[in-house]
Amino acid sequence: MSTSLVDPPVGATLAAIRAVAPKLAPSERRVADVCVERPRDVAWWSAADVAEHAGTSNATVVRACQNLGFKGFQHLRMLLLRDLGAADTPTTDAEPGAQSGAGLLRAVFTEFANDLTGALAPLEDESFEQAVHALASADRVLVVGNGGSGPSAAAVAIRFLANGRPAEAPADAVIQQLTAGHLTSRDVLLAISGSGLNQVTLRPAEAARAAGATVIGVTSYARSTLVELSDIGLVVGGGSGPWTGPGEMSPVVQVAFLIGLQIAVCRARGGSEEAAAATFKQIVPLINP
């Protein structure tokens, strides 16, 4: 069950843990939770200390670390210490006025910036390249997202369309599933779900897979149902709080990642600048008659 042993970027260790933790065994998940909730303590604790706080054994702590993608507990500790040492900004709790008004706004933006730098830690470069090739060469691209991921799906579909990559993103769940069922082996379904568990999004993914289309899943959790259903899983991390936890940060990461994906796809297809210019000429008369 272990994942890649490549070290996450500086500051991204917690994002890497969050991405894999949901599908660990319950005892191992408790170890991951302790690491995420108390990283400063875990960086200096022994495996026995973590085991005590997680209500499990030393062996489970080591196994959990390995299944999270680390060589072992000491490897995880060194990465946490590295991240703590690299943190050169004061904590948001210590910032004057950080609990209200403009101070709070600046603190939230600072956390967004810090979390974005580590959001790509769980992403596998090979999977991203495969996704770019599939989306660039597909006859038809259907983008599906619901709930909090709905706006992200609509946004990337518009960007694809404006830059010469035809795509569609129906908002209605029934139309999503019916359309997915009519895809072919030459088509791609791009499914977006922060949790990877949204049944409304999973159903079109299942339909597209049954129809023979390539399914690309974008989520924050490596061990999720969406990744299991996908031919290509693209995992990007969420936030670590207190104001940019996964629920708050996921849409920001989604949009940033999908914009990057769209740019890579359209560049691979070529003619993106010309298509964007042509689209602009079509839009201007519509919004400014």
Sheet of most strands: 4 strands, parallel
Strand order of the largest sheet: 1-2-3-4
Q: What is the beta-strand fraction?
A: 5-15%
Radius of gyration: 21 Å
Number of strands: 4
What is the N-to-C order of secondary-structure elements (H for helix, E for strand)?
Answer: HHHHHHHHEHHEHEHEHH
CATH architecture of the largest domain: 3-Layer(aba) Sandwich
Instruction: Kindly report the average pLDDT value.
Output: 86
CATH superfamily of the largest domain: Glucose-6-phosphate isomerase like protein, domain 1
Fold topology:
Blueprint: H1 13-20, H2 26-37, H3 39-42, H4 47-54, H5 58-67, H6 73-86, H7 101-118, H8 125-137, E1 140-145, H9 150-162, H10 173-181, E2 187-192, H11 199-211, E3 214-219, H12 225-229, E4 232-235, H13 246-269, H14 272-287
Parallel strand pairs: 1-2, 2-3, 3-4
Helix pairs in contact: 2-4, 2-5, 4-5, 8-13, 9-13, 10-11
Structure notes:
Residues 11-87 form the HTH rpiR-type domain. Residues 131-271 form the SIS domain. This is Transcriptional regulator, RpiR family. One of its GO terms (molecular function) is DNA-binding transcription factor activity. A four-stranded parallel β-sheet has the order 1-2-3-4, sandwiched between helices. It is α/β, with parallel strands linked by helices. It is 58% helix and 8% strand. 45% of the residues are buried. It has helices spanning 13-20, 26-37, 39-42, 47-54, 58-67, 73-86, 101-118, 125-137, 150-162, 173-181, 199-211, 225-229, 246-269, 272-287, and strands at residues 140-145, 187-192, 214-219, 232-235. It is globular and about 65 Å long. α2 crosses α4 (47-54). It contains 14 helices and four strands.
